[in-house]
Amino acid sequence: MSGPLLCEGRVVVVTGAGRGLGRAHARAYATEGAHVVVNDLGVGPDGTPGPDSPAGQVVDEIRFAGGVAVAHGGDVATAEGAASLVHTALETYGRLDTLVNNAGFLRDRMLVNLEEDDWDAVMRVHLKGHFLPLKHAAAYWRAEARAGRPPLARVVNTSSGAGLLGSVGQGNYSAAKAGVVGLTLVAAAELGRYGVQVNAVAPAARTRMTEGAFASAMAAPDDGSFDAMAPENVSPLVVWLGSAASAGVTGRVFEAEGGRITVMEGWRAGPGVDKGARWTPSEAGDAALKLLAGAEVPGVVYGVE
After folding, report:
1. 268: Cα separation from own chain's centroid
2. Do 257 and 205 form a contact (C-beta atoms < 8 A)?
3. 19, 72, 82, 284: which could form a disulfide with 279 (CB 3.0–4.6 Å)?
4. Residue 290 is a catalytic residue
5. For the chain, how big is the Rg over CA atoms in Å?
């Protein structure tokens, strides 16, 4: 590769990096010169214990290609695992520059069939599994800033179109991924003073999770044409957001699919009216209908015909 590498010398942690998007991200960062901590607990698509340790396999792939990486097999949805993740980066490479929160799994059910355990498990890995690594990384970056060593730190969180628009049969996953967006906005606002930028990406790609739910849409073409659902298509944006080159970009949400990148525009005030006094229910209803007539129509929930 000619020219300077985008992440030369940066230390990057990627959670859920044993397969799919996380693996693609870890390999892409290594290609751009980063030292990568490859985290994966080695569970199945539904979060149940798996038979192997994919983090080590990805580390071998990176090293075989001439890159630098180390494996971490802890559970980042626990305080101990998240602290260990940050400690691994600091102990191995002496610093931490970028955190990519990617770990997740699915427990899809229609709401009336969704068990409480399925709700809790998905919330735990997607939301708590974002919060705890972010908390421990942010504590390190705050300490660095207070010591007079302000970092050029980056966090890339993983949301989903399901979190932005909703997805039938994925009430738990949609709620968790919407929560990731809220967490991203708050973290960007709170951590900017310490030199930390926080953004989120909502990817569409072929992974173990999407292959089962959307098999036909995610299938790779067999004619040699562009594979729009390859997870490697999402990684360039994630790498750029995790690099120093993304200076000034924070609190943003992007969709990434195939060769398309979209800046998502979230909740903001639309049409409104102020009576200056309390409404009656009928008046409030009439006002709401008039406002809706002039408002943008929301996007269609995924899975609705």
Report:
1. 22
2. yes
3. 284
4. no
5. 21
Q: Which helix (H) or strand (E) holds 262?
A: strand 260-264
Q: Which of 84, 160, 235, 246 is catalytic?
A: 160
Helical spans, DSSP H, in the chain: 20-31, 54-64, 79-93, 116-123, 129-146, 161-165, 171-191, 208-213, 215-218, 235-241, 281-293
* Angle in degrees, 0-180, between the axes of helices 116-123 and 171-191, rounded to the nearest 10: 30
pTM exceeds cut of 0.85: yes
Closest by alpha carbon to 93, among 9, 171, 26? 9
DSSP label at residue 12? E
Kind of pairing, strands 11-14 and 35-39? Answer: parallel
Which pairing describes strands 98-100 and 153-158: parallel, antiparallel, or unpaired?
A: parallel
Look-up of token digits 């708050």: 186
Superfamily of domain 11-264: NAD(P)-binding Rossmann-like Domain (3.40.50.720)
93 annotated active-site: no
How is the chain split into domains, by residue range? 11-264
Q: H or E stretch including 150? A: none
Q: What is the pLDDT along the chain (305 residues), one digit of tens a residue?
A: 467 899 999 999 999 999 999 999 999 999 999 999 999 987 666 555 555 678 999 999 999 999 999 999 999 999 999 999 999 999 999 999 999 999 998 899 999 999 999 999 999 999 999 999 999 999 999 999 999 999 999 999 999 999 999 999 999 999 999 999 999 999 999 999 999 999 999 999 876 555 455 556 666 767 777 788 899 999 999 999 999 999 999 999 999 999 999 999 988 899 999 999 999 999 999 999 999 999 999 889 988 97
Task: Give the DSSP H/E element, type plus range, for residue 10.
Answer: none
177 assigned to active site: yes
Select which of 140, 177, 243, 302 is catalytic: 177
Which listed residue (29, 140, 173, 302) is catalytic? Answer: 173
